[in-house]
Amino acid sequence: MLQAFARSSMRNHKNAVCGEVDVYIIDSEASIECILDETFPGASYRPWLRSKPKLTKRQVEIKRFLESAPSAYEPDGLLRKTVYTALKIEKSNFLKLLNEPAMLVEIGALGLCVTRDRFRPLSAP
């Protein structure tokens, strides 16, 4: 990690002194602040707060459908075709709506994952 940070700050140097660099670290290490303080004395940091993803009107419809569909949470899950047919969304458009990062985050927040042909609970095999 240190080498990667140093390389990026070297690209922004003046008079042989490294420039400032913004670094984003996503880590589950509980003591990350201590490690950063030891490694980068004088550096400042703050936690990143995830902003609420913006969904389109159609994505909100899909989310609401999934929230109200108990079969999505059963081990066999809910066929994707059932959702796009019920909402009268063309299959190709449905796939585009489904694969946008904001939508995938929302589906995960519902405790679901998307497989090749269906929605399943995250804990399903």
Distance between the termini: 35 Å
Question: Uncertain regions: pLDDT < 50 for 5+ in a row?
Answer: none
Number of domains: 2
Strand order of the largest sheet: 1-3-2
**Total number of helical segments?**
6
Taking all Cα atoms into account, the compactness measure Rg is 22 Å
Q: Specify the overall morphology.
A: elongated
Share in β-strands = 5-15%
Q: Let me know the average pLDDT.
A: 83
Q: H/E element string?
A: HHHEHHHEE
**Secondary-structure-derived class:** mainly alpha
Q: Tell me the helix content.
A: 40-55%
| Main sheet summary | 3 strands, antiparallel
Please report the total strand number as a whole number: 3
Name its key features.
about 120 residues; mainly alpha; 2 domains; 6 helices; 3 strands; about 40% helix; about 5% strand
Textual characterization of the structure:
The protein is mainly α. The protein folds into 2 domains: 2-39, no CATH class; 57-121. 42% of the residues lie in helices and 7% in strands. It has 6 helices and 3 strands. The chain has helices spanning 2-10, 32-39, 57-67, 80-86, 91-98, 101-109; strands at 78-79, 112-114, 118-121. Strands 1-3-2 form a 3-stranded antiparallel beta sheet. The longest helix has 11 residues, at 57-67. It is elongated and about 65 Å long. The two termini are 35 Å apart. The mean pLDDT is 83.
